[in-house]
Write a structure and sequence with these properties.
22 helices; single chain; globular; 77% helix; mainly alpha
Length: 501
């Protein structure tokens, strides 16, 4: 009765509406799942429970089991790196070698780029490690919070070996999520342009809006600014034995083992269908198998390395396992519920209805990327969750448009980029809150100072998606987007200078 009709879109609409109203994603997703089950079972209570449990939740756990393993292993590796003192060692190195304000900001940016495997790890570690360095060079705490926040989600969203890539890959059918994730990177304008934005304003020494006021105060000695409701970060374990290589080595090993495992699963090595065909192997691989396989090997190698270095004991290494699991529980819950919601909309055949609408879209087709981007921006900003946002939108985009087309890849990337924007500057986003805590600054001050920066990049990204809807070639559109970003920054600089005079 509800299959392939407008009613088939009701479950995700309910989930979105409740998330916007309650600001709570777990219950909103579950109620959306329940609504889908009721509609699929024509309101038969027994069949509804069967659909929700078996077709929804259990199927979701089964589908995402490999990604669960990868997320837990990432959590464990994060705990191990912190226990080893590798992150703190980078801070000691920076205190010794960084001599200028620009150098301190770029060192903060570099550490954020280096810690690309998970945004939680990024936010809490970069703040704790770099805060003494940025304080010494009179960088305001809100500027530090922005640097942390602007390199957490954006870098994770363009790194194929990260918790975010694993989550995204789960929402694409046939285990091809990582392949499309990589294809979408050149079109992920918000993430890429945010990095361009940070480097540019840092090098030319430009700030605007409320951020410039805090930076002026910092130069006068008031680094913290508003001390009311000051956020406090979790303290990293002090381990003086740690060196910078203890941070870099596990990440290098993780990249090598995961890439090797992905190639193995894709048949790159002798015995597979795509023997010694690199591109074919990546196109044929399954991230839900390759990523957990590679990460488990990396975890074992990392534990052995840290034990041989004697920076952690065997007992501390084992303590990191439950710590890593606990840290990833919220991410695992969102992934499970979002996947279950995807399964329920699949039972209602919502994709057929959306495809029918798009078949008659006409000229609207060219504006689909920017529409998807703006919807994702609004949803992620309002709910504070990027994973919940692209968990709802990616299945709709992939089924309705088809990722085998360039437009589908652009639309998927627009969904990811919009989700990152919302995660970046929403006052209720976990990474925004953790960035305030990592920098130990007032949370509202952090939100109010970074929204103008994030919105500037989002505006340029929206224009870029309009261009991409017509051009559909990353080699052309990405350089145009970067030029637009430079032009916007220098225009703002000129306007700000005139106002100051």
């Amino acid at each position: 009765m509800f299959e392939a009709t407008i009613w088939s879109l009701l479950p995700p609409v309910i989930a979105i509406a409740l998330a916007l109203i309650t600001k709570e994603v777990f219950s909103s997703l579950f109620i959306g799942i329940l609504a889908g089950g009721l509609m699929f079972a024509n309101f038969n209570p027994v069949k509804t429970i069967d659909a929700v449990v078996n077709e929804g939740v259990i199927a979701a756990v089964s589908d995402t089991a490999g990604i669960f393993v990868f997320l837990v292993v990432l959590g464990v590796m994060v705990a191990l790196i912190n226990k080893s003192g590798g992150s703190a060692a980078f801070g000691r190195w920076a205190e010794t070698h960084v001599k200028t304000k620009v150098g301190a900001a770029l060192a903060t940016f570099a550490l954020g780029i280096l810690i690309f495997i998970d945004d939680y790890f990024n936010c809490l570690t970069v703040g704790s490690v770099m805060r003494p360095v940025t304080d010494a060079h009179k960088i305001s705490r809100v500027k530090l919070a922005y640097l942390i926040d602007a390199t957490a989600a954006p870098i994770c969203m363009i790194a194929p070996i990260s918790s975010w890539a694993a989550a995204v890959s789960e929402y694409v059918a046939d285990g091809q999520g990582l392949t499309y994730f990589i294809k979408a990177i050149p079109y992920n304008f918000y993430s890429l342009l945010t990095l361009v934005f940070i480097i540019t304003i840092t090098v030319i020494g430009f700030d605007f809006g409320k951020m410039s006021e805090y930076e002026i105060k910092a130069q006068q000695g008031d680094i913290v600014g508003d001390t009311s409701n000051l956020s406090k970060s979790e303290k990293l374990e002090v381990n003086e034995k740690g060196i910078v290589f203890d941070l870099i080595f596990p990440i290098i090993v993780l990249i090598i083992t995961c890439v090797t495992a992905l190639l193995y699963v894709g048949g790159f090595f002798p015995g597979g269908d795509y023997t010694w065909d690199l591109i074919g192997a990546f196109g044929n691989t399954d991230a839900t198998v390759g990523l957990p396989m590679g990460s488990l090997v990396a975890l074992v190698v990392t534990i052995i390395y840290l034990l041989l270095r004697r920076v952690v004991t065997f007992k501390k290494a084992m303590e990191a396992i439950p710590q890593g699991f606990i840290a990833m529980v919220p991410a695992i819950l969102i992934l499970t519920l979002a996947t279950a919601l995807k399964n329920m909309t699949g039972l209602l055949d919502a994709s057929s209805y959306v495809k029918g609408i798009l078949a008659n879209a006409g000229a609207l087709e060219y504006f689909l990327p920017v529409i998807v981007f703006l919807v994702a921006c609004f949803l992620a900003f309002s709910t504070g969750t990027s994973w919940g946002t692209f968990g709802i939108l990616i299945p709709i985009v992939s089924e309705a448009i088809g990722l085998d087309s360039e437009l589908g890849v652009i639309a998927m990337s627009a969904c990811l980029a919009g989700s990152v924007f919302g995660d970046h500057c929403s006052p209720i986003s976990d990474t925004t809150i953790m960035s305030s805590a990592g920098a130990e600054c007032n949370h509202i001050a952090h939100v109010s100072t970074q929204i103008p920066y994030a919105s500037t990049v989002a505006a340029v990204s929206a224009v870029s998606y309009i261009i991409a809807g017509f051009v559909r070639n990353a080699l052309i559109v990405l350089p145009i987007a970067i030029v637009l970003m430079f032009a916007t920054i220098f225009t703002l600089k000129v306007v700000t200078a005139k106002k100051a005079k």
